[in-house]
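Prompt: For my understanding, could you write out one protein's sequence and backbone structure tokens?
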Amino acid sequence: MYSLEQIGKGLRRPAMAKREIRQQYQQMQTVLPHDVGIQGSYRTGNIGDRALGRTFSGQLTAMGYRPRTFGKNIEYSRAPVHVLGGGGVLHDWYGTDHLRRRLNFVSEGDAVIGVGVPGFKTDEGRELIRSGLANVELVTVRDEWSRDRLAPHYDGDIHVTACPTLIRHDPDVPSTGRTGVNFRRWFHLDPDVMSYYFDYDDVTDFDNARERYLETITRLCEELDDPVFIPFHEKDETFAHEHLDIEVLPYEFSVKKTLERVSAVDRMVATRYHSLVFAVICETPALAIAYEPKVSSLADRVGVPSYRPHTSIPVEFGSIANRDELRRTAERNFRLLDDACLSD
């Protein structure tokens, strides 16, 4: 119950009341009975992360389980099975507190499913991985890059699968005949972070690399046929308005709407990882800007060209190959999880 004073404040400040109601609803959801708790960054405003959360919930529900997704409030989960679900979550580039919390969630013998592994630069981070994963029943990673980064610090089996979101279906909306583009702000992190975690050892002047990237995406938009910007985060929309002179679709925190937008274009220039994932789902010919190894890894698996952000990038699209095979590989995440942790 709320006091009269609290109700009065809510009437005077509707945005505050809306935020409080949303927080109460999310907390209520976490304490509802569930037999699988799934932890990830699903409420950050990133469409890719939201797609992961929705995919885990939908697939596990279809399999007959009662899942609940969690962001930070993992202490509310009393489920017998905990899953660290998707995203590039295993790393220590901004400290180890977040890594410790994630590993604590699955340290009693549960599962890490479809994750990315940028790596562990610190001794503390590497030791956390060794101890935190020691009793985990199952580990699957979304690509070979992640397996290679994890293997030196984990003795168990590592199954290379694919991003769980790839099990989703193309909404198959009518074509607009346009070229979709997604660019994100980049070269803003500490050079040490970018060199170690994202394989930029060859870059010595990050300010120059940033300028080359901005020049390249401007040129691409000038050369593309009827480009339209598709944001996967509200920051994408801000970045596009600041640097590009093309139509920018309004950001919507909707997996369905964003997937329909990608399905509607005839080609896709994909920078964010999940903008390429969505292009694969929709079999939209793509050109990938590989700002991280995860993007080039997926581009290689589906046979589309990929280029580093600060290099010369031609207007060259590739048709999506192996979509059905990659979908089956992504589905394997859930078969393995069912066999290892869920089935009696």
In short: The longest helix spans residues 323-342.
